[in-house]
Amino acid sequence: MKEGNKLIRIKFSKHGLMKYTGHLDTMRYFQKVIRRSGINAAYSEGFSPHQIMSFAQPLSVGVESNGEYFDLEVTDLSTSSDMIERMNAASAEGMEIRDIVLLPDKAPKAMASVFSAAYTVIFRPGHEPEWDIFEAVRAFKDLPSLKITKKSKKSVREIQLKDFVFSLDIEEKTLGFLFPDGPLSGDEIKDPEKKVPYLRMRLSAASGDNVKPALLIRALKGIMVQGSDEEEEYPSLTDLLITREDIFDSDGKPLSKAGERF
Amino acid sequence: MLTIEKPERYIGNEINACIKDKHKVDIRFAICFPDVYEIGMSHLGIQILYDMFNKREDVWCERVYSPWVDLDRIMRDKNIPLFALESQDRIKDFDFLGITLQYEMCYTNILQILELSGIPLLQKERGEEDPIVIGGGPCTYNPEPIAPFFDLFYIGEGEKSYDELLDLYKEMKSEGRSKAEFLREASKIEGMYVPSLYDVEYSEDGTIKRFFPLFDDVPRMVRKNLAEDLDTVPYPEKPLVPFIQVTQDRVVLEVMRGCIRGCRFCQAGQIYRPVRERSLGFLKKKAEEMLNSTGQDEITLSSLSTSDYSELFELVNFLIDNFRDRYVNISLPSLRIDAFSLDIMSRVQDVKKSSLTFAAEAGSQRMRNVINKGITEEDIMRGSAEAFRGGWNKVKLYFMLGLPFETDEDVLEISHLSDRVAMNYFDTIPKEERKGIRVMVNSSASFFIPKPFTPFQWAPMNSAAEFKRKAGLVKEAVKNELNHKSLKFQYHENDISELEGVLARGDRRISGVILEAYKNGAIYDSWSEIFKKSRWDEAFRSTGIEKTFYTERERDTSEILPWDFIDTGVSKAFLIREWENAKKGVVTPNCREKCSLCGAAAFKTGVCMR
Fold it and tell me: Domains, chain A, ranges and CATH?
């Protein structure tokens, strides 16, 4: 890092239509937000300089979030609240800056700090599970171990799922509670008093050991329905409504706690 | 939404998108580019009109693009009506659907837009509840092949008469007048063509016998709209910023409109006459505003021939001085290669990575004189020598095949000229300075398609087989050149060229072919991976229309052409003179050297007043 430059960590949320923007487009979006808001980002050297920016972890398309992070090298600072305000004034609806902190010297990069992530998961109305998910959660907790196959772009390996699930809770909520602003586009909520399962989970998110909520849901179904843990098409992209609530380091602290507001 | 490719194409919500209260506007206007989002969002004209309409408090203008084939299928299966990006409301409920026509191969996509919107494809089958479908853009200079699909064509530049048209609509709507009454009145506004108010009779030989308005109060000729002063018409301060990477993902600064050059194959060079520049002060202000409001990191100077902009040097210096330390790239397409432009380019781009493009258009000097391409072999050699000395070692040469009066010798000159440019590198750069780098000359040829309102509008077009033969000649010749290892030659497939030739100079009867082709599944015809020739062949067969009548036939200058009712300001007499000059290989000077009395001076603006 160049003498005099500072490293800040920016926490943002992503909701509504913005959940359809992919990771690369989200990066490109923030580069422009920073330019519009007049924040003095530091640029790399060379003939095509770019902002020195790194994201904690990509968010899957279709997933909303209350806690995404990226680090940005800047050449000067005003105050956290001023920068938050300026960036939000330059933001698209659905994207909001929640926090900006100054990282201490030698702080590990956001990406290297990621250890776990918290999610809430509900099923899209009309896509509720036909199997008993409450029983599945109880059984999962009682099982001494649960091995599943985890596939990534690079590898297929068997993992001990319980080592990657740090917490899992389920309760019932009414549709009216989950969708206070009415139905999602295209979905009809006929009975707002209807109770549906609502899951909260904290999963491993470290590089190479990232477990997505859908993988856990498939494993839960596998407990109840023999052989279904191999059904790669379940759950489909449209079955679940997932929100990442926050990302934590190995001490269990949200990544924004690695620095101080200024 | 998650099962389709790139859902961001359909969500709207972009930075600088305009959201209004639909209950507080009088007119809802859907503006459409009938191609995929990434192409449509790159188009300057839409950005200009979107901004201009939304500056009116009584209008809410929203965008719509062609759904990609994946969403198209889902919409048909599930009966989902086409919607506008901003409000996500149905297109069918809008007052206007304005479709920009930038190239002929988008014609089947117009029908897709209409059908998915639930609007009858044929104008005569539409009711009062349907939007008024209005076409604009360069293809309206021959609107006849698509005339039955439109209520109205706006011919010329949008800045001029839209206010008048929208005011008229608002007034007549509030009086409860019918659509037919509105269209009749609209036909009297300059530049408006209401095809249902005209009829055509044909002679036995298939040519047009008579083209005439059906009523006495409907004008016989439609004169194009032209914005006289580009500094006083609206230009966006806050262009839209897409989330996904689009084709033209940068701020676009249109420095001038029109072209002084008068190349005889070029339609844009004729229909946008006279050339009009924007002032340096205007451009500086807009550049600053647009970069601030978008956060884009690149700005491009746009025009048909940016080298001809009088204050280019000052403008580029301003951009470098003010924006380079903000890491803004400056891109300069369509520059003529000379010492001046090379100097500018070396200051704004990485010489090592970039390649230089010479639009030679033809291989032989004789052919370049025929097409009035005001560039000589000497210019090309001097420009390329300077480029080589400046550190460039990749050069692109653009050519056309199938130009009028072209002989095989002319065709072979494409190969020979490419070789001479490569040779020029070795003559210019001494061996010890070459550092083992091989010069690369990439030549590519496209097939010439005669367009309306050019001196070549009467010319026969080469057949597909003839194109192929000529391309083959060049390909063989390149292999035998001395510097063949430094040469590469490419040409584009010709299935589409022939069809584009029919659509470009077609008459109303061609609309039946387009309709049939669409019913056979034709859509996204400009996308080679989707285009299927068989859908069109079948449509020509079933309608009994002969392609060659429109492509390979040489027209007599006395023939009534389908687009003759449009007055572009450039006179037919001038085009005939230019056609004759082409036959003789006589060059016509550009508009700044000498006025050739084309007729555009009637607009009393731009270069004509100097």
Answer: 6-112+252-258 (3.30.70.580), 125-238 (no CATH)
